[in-house]
Amino acid sequence: MTRISSSQLQREAINSMLKQHETLSRTQQQVASGKKIFKPSDDPVAASRVVNLKDTLSAINQHQSNVEAARARITLSEGVLSNVVDLIHRASELSIQANNDSQNDETRSYIAAEIVQIQEAILNLANTTDSNNEYLYAGSLSRFKPFGRNESGGFEYSGDESHRELQISRSRSIVVDDPGSEIFLEIKNGNGTFNALEGLENKGTGIIDPGQASAKYVADTYAIVFNQSSKNIPQGEDAGEIPLTYKVVDSGGKVISAGIPFVSGKEIVFNGVHTFIKGKPEDGDHFIVRPSQNQNIFTTLENLTRALRSKTPEANDVVGFHNAMNRAITDLSQTLDNMLVARGKIGARLNSLDSQEVINDTYRLQIREILSDVEDLDFAEAVSRLNLELTGLEASQKAFTRVQDISLFNFL
């Protein structure tokens, strides 16, 4: 038989009430805070899971902030390029207007003055900054002004070729802007495949069309050389007007074709090149067809201004003017295409941001639901448990009071 002393009985009763009070206090904390876990020791597995879920939620919130920042920067860039496109459209309209023979030197000088203003406006747009005073089109060197004039009066780019990116999900990043070199500098001149130019010493009235390339195009530099000689008259025919023929020679001196009679406006085709020449070239005149090269938008506008300011009182000057204007109009078309490609990329990025934002919101909602299941309190269960614990503690206290009044000496 085990003997229990009065002091031992009291100690056990007090310890039991203290444990009940501790349990009741913890339940009261849970009801007051709405949380099940206050320290890792309460539930180590659940506590670890809560930490991981909160880290994931924090990362999602950061990704959503990045989505908003990326959208703001990309939208700003889209607005800039939209303005540039409008300016190029205006320059193209003025160029077509100026290329009409009804214009004179005075009216063309007015057009040239407006082209200069367009050039300055595009230069300012190319140096646009965001709300953080960072340049949009400088690559990673966003604190440095990307475009400016050099000592010789030309234009230079001070940025780099980097694409700035922002992380918009754990496994996905998005380009927020393109380097200015891709948008404003690396634009193919001519028709984008080849560029057609007249010889500087040409004396005739030949004006070459910018042309187009077929799938059979062979990249090389070609010369279309004109010849007018009595040798071109077939034997047995009466001598009349000496026919004008042309030959095509590649960069290595190889004759692609020769002795072809020239007809103004008739298509000239060789090695995938399709073009034509209007007017009447003279003996010895030549035209060059060479692969397109990169030409910046500012040089294109500079060439246009120079052509508009050239004097055209004589026939050869008029021919040179129209050849220069044809090239300028074609170069502007290529510039416009390049801008539209850049804007297309921006549109695709904005669509990607919209879709990723929805994905992030859905994922964030799922994580919050899981986190709520792990750490949030079931109030109905907790209140019921609180009442039971409170009733148990009250009963224990009453029992302790009654037992405390009982003593063995009362029965002696």
How would you characterize this protein structure?
- It is a single chain.
- The protein has 412 residues and is of the alpha+beta class.
- It has a domain of 138 residues.
- 51% of the residues lie in helices and 15% in strands.
- The strands form four sheets. Strands 5-13-8-9-10 form a five-stranded antiparallel beta sheet. Strands 6, 7, 11 and 12 form a four-stranded antiparallel beta sheet that branches.
- A hairpin with a 2-residue loop joins strand 11 and strand 12.
- The mean pLDDT is 84.
Which key phrases capture this entry?
elongated; about 400 residues; five-stranded antiparallel β-sheet; alpha+beta; about 15% strand; four-stranded antiparallel β-sheet; 7 helices
List the helices and strands and how they pair.
Blueprint: H1 6-33, H2 44-98, H3 105-126, E1 147-149, E2 155-157, E3 164-169, E4 172-177, H4 180-185, E5 194-198, E6 207-208, E7 212-213, E8 222-228, E9 244-249, E10 255-261, E11 267-270, E12 273-278, E13 286-291, H5 297-308, H6 315-375, H7 379-405
Antiparallel strand pairs: 1-2, 3-4, 5-13, 6-12, 7-12, 8-9, 8-13, 9-10, 11-12
State the shape.
elongated
Low-confidence region ranges: none
Return the structural class.
alpha+beta
Report the strand count.
13
Strand content: 15-25%
Alpha plus pi helix count:
7
The sequence of SSEs as H and E is HHHEEEEHEEEEEEEEEHHH
- How much helical structure, as a percent, in the residues? 40-55%
Q: What summary fits the major beta sheet?
A: 5 strands, antiparallel
Task: State the distance separating the first and last CA atoms.
Answer: 21 Å
Query: Order of strands across the biggest sheet?
Result: 5-13-8-9-10
Mean pLDDT: 84
Radius of gyration: 42 Å
